[in-house]
């Protein structure tokens, strides 16, 4: 009794070769020995906005933060490190200096390094819109999930319209992550004085203590791209 039917396997091989050929891949080519794709990074691509799927954490301070977080992770199944407690990161700078690019680059770098990572990313405006009370929606449960997530990215903090309610939501979220020492990656267009005025003293004080700060400067890269679409990167 044979373990496999060679004719059945041959049919599968032919179909696979046809699929590869239609995709412009030579089915007879020998692998070049390059690095294999990281499954976790491939799985995360659908959750990363298309513009940032090739993002890299190439700022030295952001890359250093990535290394620190990766090294602090507790070993899990198979020995791969997982996010544990650690410092947060605040990336500040004017519009178009690459803050969001660096933030998603940090996520991709952690995944590419093999870190087991459960993460969520949101803009401040989307955060408040998603949590705003409405029938049939459990905003409290969603807030708890965000507060407990091992790594949370909050993009454009300070860009949404301020109210007592947004200040309360931000305080509850940041305070939990501050108390539990959970890494939080925050980007903002505001300096610390303006951020304090927008989010309140309690939020700004906690961010100052819990987060390393990176300031990005330079021209608006989006405007440069519009002027020189071919040369811009």
From TrEMBL:
Single GO MF annotation: ATP binding
InterPro entries membership: IstB_ATP-bd, P-loop_NTPase
GO BP annotations listed: DNA replication
IstB-like ATP-binding domain sequence ranges: 87-204
Superkingdom, natural source: Bacteria
Pfam families: IstB_IS21 (PF01695)
PANTHER family reported in the protein's UniProt record: ATP-BINDING PROTEIN RV3427C IN INSERTION SEQUENCE-RELATED (PTHR30050:SF4), CHROMOSOMAL REPLICATION INITIATOR PROTEIN DNAA (PTHR30050)
Annotated protein name in UniProt: DNA replication protein DnaC
Organism (species): Streptomyces clavuligerus
């Amino acid at each position: 009794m044979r373990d496999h039917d060679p004719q059945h396997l041959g049919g599968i091989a032919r179909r696979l070769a046809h699929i590869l050929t239609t995709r412009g891949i030579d089915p007879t080519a020998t692998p070049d020995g390059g690095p294999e794709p990281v499954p976790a990074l491939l799985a995360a691509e659908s959750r990363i906005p298309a513009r940032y799927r090739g993002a890299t954490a190439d700022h030295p301070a952001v890359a250093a933060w990535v290394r620190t977080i990766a090294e602090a992770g507790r070993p899990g199944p198979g020995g791969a490190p997982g996010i544990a407690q650690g410092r947060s990161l605040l990336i500040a700078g004017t519009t178009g200096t690459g803050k969001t690019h660096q933030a998603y680059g940090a996520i991709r770098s952690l995944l590419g390094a093999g870190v087991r990572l459960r993460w969520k990313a949101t803009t401040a405006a989307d955060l408040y819109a998603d949590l705003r009370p409405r029938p049939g929606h459990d905003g409290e449960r969603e807030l708890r999930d965000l507060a407990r997530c091992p790594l949370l990215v909050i993009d454009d903090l300070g860009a949404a319209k301020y109210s007592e309610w947004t200040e309360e939501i931000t305080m509850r979220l940041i305070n939990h992550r501050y108390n539990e020492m959970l890494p939080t990656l925050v980007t903002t267009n505001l300096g610390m004085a303006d951020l304090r005025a927008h989010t309140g003293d309690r939020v700004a004080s906690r961010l100052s203590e819990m987060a390393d700060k990176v300031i990005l400067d330079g021209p608006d890269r989006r405007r440069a791209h519009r002027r020189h679409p071919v040369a811009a990167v």
